Amino acid sequence: MIKSYKQLIFAVSICLFFLPFISAAQIDKNATKETKALYRYLKKTSKKHILFGHQHATEYGHGWSGERDRSDVKSVTGSHPAVIGVDFSGFSGRPKAAIDQAVNALKKNVIDTYNRGGVTTVAWHFSNPASKGGFYWVDTVSAPAISLIKPGGSHHEKYKEILRTVGDFANSVRGKNGTLAPMIFRPFHEFDGGWFWWGKPHCSREDFVDVWQFTVSYLRDSLGVHNFIYAFSPDNKFNTEEEFLERYPSDKWVDMVGMDNYGDFGRDGKYNLEAGVKKLKIVSDYAKKANKLAAFTETGLESIPNPTWWTETLLKALKTEKINLSYVLVWRNDIHSPTHYYAPYQGHSSVPDFLNFYNDPYTLFEKDLTKVYKKRFLGIF
Fold this sequence. Notes:
Elements: H1 5-23, H2 33-45, E1 50-55, E2 60-61, E3 64-65, H3 72-77, E4 83-87, H4 96-116, E5 119-123, H5 146-149, H6 156-170, E6 183-186, H7 205-222, E7 228-232, H8 241-244, E8 256-260, H9 273-290, E9 293-299, H10 309-320, E10 327-330, H11 351-359, E11 363-364
Parallel strand pairs: 1-4, 1-10, 1-11, 4-5, 5-6, 6-7, 7-8, 8-9, 9-10
Antiparallel strand pairs: 2-3
Helix pairs in contact: 9-10, 10-11
Enzyme class: hydrolase
GO molecular function: mannan endo-1,4-beta-mannosidase activity
Domain GH26: 33-367
């Protein structure tokens, strides 16, 4: 019982101090301790730093594949990226033997990253469950499947079967300490464009939201997946918060907000950093307002023809405004293509600038991460 004015002031001050940390809760109240710890780590770290990520970094790279503990980023800096991007693309639309092989290969990758103390984020380029055409939208071939996989749709049971494969995988990735590896799960990304079958031109807002909410609910509440942080990430086709949130399924169904943006950062030689920074600020500002995490979920410059792109474009954009972003991820380095790569490899002309990017105190790589999955007192120590 509070007996004095001073005690009341003290109590209110304590509540106000801890409120941001208490209210910054995940949408899964039963998330594993390690997943909660990752969420809090990202929340705290984003105030002063940003984690660097690279898609498929440890699976393959420029001219190589399947080598233990290798990444192009590590060959340049001595450290893997802090965030490793993987994909559930192999979990459906293929023969069972191929799916099992993809699951087993990805399981090792996620567990290895977790055991090293790194972070995994998962994209989902999954094949259209109602037609041919793969994950891209192909006119005259692709079916508008979002309306078909929602509850009551003709392909809903098939979608549940696909989600069971995802759920089984999520509940199998245990590290050397026996705990489940947390993952940032980013389904239906770039949904504001038309290139994927789940894109805006191919489904209504209501159907998209229904499928998003069902996906989270089925994984979390029916399949018992409690090691996912759910990320919402359109492409860069917005200029206001209202446009950004047009297909947002509500704060109850999202842990992290983000953006994919290649177009403002040099694609086809076109730069519009002012627009790119404005959009990043919209993402960051909404995350602060809603007590969510924020991230620059995909970007990059194919072939990196600009040798100072890392510091003069990317880092400059990240530092221009007061934005809090958990991580920035660049796309993959293809095994065979001489031009399709987004991170430098040994001998590339952007290596000196990338090392400046690496050495900047603002950026964090895997070697910089400590106790990511350890519980902290109320997530702040």
